[in-house]
Specification:
Number of helices: 12
Pfam families: Terpene_syn_C_2
Number of domains: 1
Cofactor: Mg(2+)
CATH architecture: Orthogonal Bundle
Low-confidence stretches: none
Helix content: 55-70%
Organism: Streptomyces longisporoflavus
Shape: globular
Protein name: Terpene synthase
Largest sheet: none
CATH superfamily: Farnesyl Diphosphate Synthase
EC number: 4.2.3.-
Order of helices and strands: HHHHHHHHHHHH
Radius of gyration: 19 Å
CATH class: Mainly Alpha
Strand content: under 5%
Distance between the termini: 40 Å
Number of strands: 0
Mean pLDDT: 91
CATH topology: Farnesyl Diphosphate Synthase
Structural class: mainly alpha
Length: about 300
């Protein structure tokens, strides 16, 4: 759990957080989320047992919805403590948004566990829909309001364009995480469902070809994110602008964290803290084609010209 460097991770998402208690509470959930993911989702005893996982997920989610909910699993009590911290300083609207995002995450993990149990390899469109939930981006970005104190009005937060930007930020980060964790997962035979295995199965690609195709998909989504962001920001209120900055910080912060964090062992060994002090970015995207990603109709609406 310590090797997740979760404080480093979330501080990169919310560098504008000025209240230490708020930032601490958000960071504690990130530590909890990584631990729960490892122990109960990806490779734990419930990772291929959907009925048992769903029973636990119900107890976990109830803690987010009700102040005095209980459960036998130790992760339930730990989460109750964290959510109680949220309730102590945040308005009900923000706590409720986090609870809804948390439910979305658990639903995606349940989908993933079901696939693992049945040996089903999803197609690209299904995988993206699942990954948008199972990656944990929904609750992580919902923490931005809790950490910074921003209160985005419903009329702005629920605009289709803002929803599209949130989903795009999640997918870019998820694609980066799939890349960062690939070596670790290959070494532990945990590669049944990631962007590359999906592309290899659907398009009959080699691993190297799938990595290149995955990078191209990621860059096309990021380009669209930047285009749409620049259309939305000029009319955004102050709190929405804070949230939009958090999406941008999160994309870059997640990427730079993932290249350094011992959890992913990105270079096949435990990295020194200064090993990646000189990171650099490509001067241009590896795929500059306009328009929606082929084979993924479920996200084509992100390119709708009417979004603004």
């Amino acid at each position: 759990m310590i090797a997740t460097h979760s404080a480093d991770f979330f501080a990169r998402f919310a560098p504008e957080a000025e209240d230490d208690d708020r930032l601490l509470a958000a960071t504690l959930w990130v530590y909890w989320g990584f631990a729960f993911d490892d122990a109960r989702c990806d490779a734990g005893p419930l990772s291929k047992r959907p009925a048992q996982f769903n029973a636990l997920a119900g107890q976990v989610q109830r803690v987010c919805d009700a102040p005095f909910a209980v459960g036998a699993d130790p992760y339930v009590g730990a989460l109750r403590d964290i959510v109680d911290r949220f309730r102590s300083f945040a308005p009900p609207t923000q706590v409720r948004r986090f609870a809804q995002a948390h439910r979305a995450w658990l639903s995606g993990v349940a989908w993933q566990v079901g696939n693992q149990a049945s040996g089903r390899m999803p197609g690209l469109d299904d995988y993206i829909a699942m990954r948008l939930l199972a990656a944990g981006g929904e609750p992580t970005f919902a923490l931005l309001e809790l950490a910074t104190g921003a209160e985005v009005p419903d009329r702005e937060m629920y605009r289709p364009a803002v929803r599209a930007l949130t989903e795009m930020a999640i997918l870019v980060a998820a694609a980066d995480n799939d890349r960062h964790s690939l070596l670790k997962e290959l070494s532990r035979n945990h590669t049944d469902q990631n962007l590359y295995t999906v592309l290899m199965a659907e398009r009959s690609l080699s691993l190297q070809e799938a990595v290149e195709a995955g990078a191209a998909l990621r860059d096309r989504v990021l380009r669209r994110f930047l285009e749409l962001h620049d259309r939305v920001r000029p009319t955004a209120g102050a709190d929405l602008r804070t949230y939009l900055r958090g999406l941008r910080y999160g994309i870059r912060g997640n990427n730079e964290w993932g290249l350094r964090v011992p959890r992913y062992l990105s270079r096949g060994h435990w990295p020194d803290e200064m090993e990646f002090s000189e990171l650099y970015y490509a001067s241009q995207p590896c795929d500059t084609r306009p328009g929606p990603v082929e084979g993924a109709p479920g996200i084509a609406w992100w390119w709708d010209p009417a979004l603004a």
